Amino acid sequence: MSSLFQPAPLLRCTAGLRSRGLVPVAQHFQRHASTSPAGILVATGDSRTSTSAPVSRPAEELPSGLERLPTSSVIRNILLGYFFSKPYLLKPGFAILRRIADSRLQILNPDVNPILRRALRPLLYDQFCAGTNKAEIGRTKDAIKGIGYSGIILCYGKETQFSEGLRNANVSTAGHDSQITQWRDGNLETLGMIGEGDWLGIKLTGAGSNVTAALMQNRAPCKEFLEATDAVCRKAAAQNCRIWIDAEQQALQSTIDLWTIQLMQRWNTNGKALVYNTVQAYLKASRTKLKHQLALAQAGGWALGIKLVRGAYIGTDPRHLLHDTKQDTDDSYNSIVRDLLSGSNLGMREQDFPKNVRLFLAGHNPDSVSAAWNLVQTLNEEGRLKVVPDFGQLQGMGDVLGCTFLQRRESLASEAATGKDIIVPRLYKCLTWGSLHECMQYLFRRAVENSGGVDRMRDGMVAYKAELRRRLFGSRSGA
C-alpha cells in the first residue's frame, strides 16, 4: 500500500529559521485573519519561511480564481444566490422541494415526470451533483481536477428516510437482503469511478430498511452487512482510496458512531487511516464524542480518522441537542480545529497526543477555513503541528472560497519548491451521484444549508457578477 494514508509530506528547509516566542493557539483565529473586499478571509500573520517574506500574497492581490469555473457554473451561482436571498421565493420553494423529496407518488418522481426533471436538472442537480452514470461523472471529475483540486470525494446518493415505525420494526438477521446487496454494489461501482487518492463517501442508511431499523434500535450489524462493508473496504484499500462515513440524523447517529468505530478498529492499522468518522460541531456533545474516540484510538493503537463538519440536519435534529446560537456553533468548530491541530485540550497532554490521528476539515465558512489554513503554517513553524489536515467543500458550494484557496495553494507550492518549510494542504470537492430521485433528499439538505448562509452567498454573488462582467466586457468593475 502506498503512502497515501500518511499525512501530506512536509517540505523542509530548516537552516536559518528565526526563533520566535510561541503564539497562544487560542488567539490564532483572531490574529491571523482579515477580511478582503470580497468577504474572503486572508492571511495577515507571519509566514513559515527563513526570512520575513509572507508565505503567500494576500488573496486580494491575486486574481479571483473564479476564471477557473465554466460560465454555466458562474451563471447558476448567480441565479441560486438570487433565489436564496429572497424570502418570498425561498419559503414556497422549500415546501415544493420537501414535498418532492419525501413523496412516493410517481407523479412527483423527477425520474418519471419529465416536467420536474427539466426544471430540477439544470438548476439544482447540475449544480450540486456529479451525474447519473459513469460518463457524466467522469466529465465532472475531470473538470474538478482540471480546476486544480487534489481529488474528489464521490458519494452514492441513495439513502433511506427513517420513520418512527422503524424503531419497533422486526430486523431480519438472516437470509439474503437485496437492499444490502444493492448498496454494496452501488458503493463498489462508485469506487470504480474514482482513482488513487480520491475518497468514497458512504451513507449507512443507503443499505436499506433493515439496516436503518438496526441503527435506530442500537443493534449490532447483521452478518450480510459486515460482509458488504468488508468488500467495500478491501476494494478501497487496494486502490489507495479513503472512506468517510457520513453523519446522519441523531436518531441513528449513536449506532453509526459505534459501527464506524468498529470499522476503524479493523481497517485503520499500521498508522494508516482508511475509514473516517464524522463529527458535527453544531452538536453540544461534539467535543465529548471526539475526546471519547481519541481515547479509544490511543488505547487500541489504531488510527482515528475524523471528518469535521458543522452539521447538515438542522431541520430535523432535536433542537436541544444543538448549540443555542450560530456563534456557539462557530466557536465549537473553530476550537475543535485548533485543539486537534495542536493536540491540546482534548483530555491528554500535548506530548501524549496520538501520532496516528488523521483529519479532514469540511467547511464553507471563510473565517474558519482561513484561520485553520493559517494555523497549520504557524504550528508547523513552531514545531507544534500534530495533524496535517485535508480541506474540502461540497460541489456547488463555496466556489469563491475554494478558488481563492486554490490560488493560495499554488502560491504555497511555488514557495515550497524553493525549499521553504511550508505545508501545502490538499483540497478536495465532494460530489454526490445518482438519479434525480435518489439525490432529492441530498438536494433538499443543500438548499437548507444554503439558506442559512445568506450573507456568505450575498458576498459570493458580488464575486460571481464581477466574474461574469469580466467574461462579457473584459472588466470586473461595473455598476
Automatic annotation (TrEMBL):
Key word Hydrolase present: no
Cellular compartments per GO CC: mitochondrion
Keywords associated with the record: FAD, Flavoprotein, Oxidoreductase, Proline metabolism
Region (Disordered): 40-64
UniProt cofactor(s): FAD
Reactions mediated catalytically: L-proline + a quinone = (S)-1-pyrroline-5-carboxylate + a quinol + H(+)
Entry keyword annotation includes Flavoprotein: yes
Regions annotated as coiled coil: none
Top-rank EC class of the record's enzyme: oxidoreductase
One Pfam family recorded for the sequence: Pro_dh
EC number(s) stated in the UniProt entry for this protein: 1.5.5.2
Domain Proline dehydrogenase: 204-457
GO biological process, one term: L-proline catabolic process to L-glutamate
GO terms assigned for molecular function: FAD binding; proline dehydrogenase activity
Protein task: Converts proline to delta-1-pyrroline-5-carboxylate.
UniProt record similarity statement: Belongs to the proline oxidase family.
Listed name of the protein: Proline dehydrogenase
Organism taxonomic ancestry: Eukaryota, Fungi, Dikarya, Ascomycota, Pezizomycotina
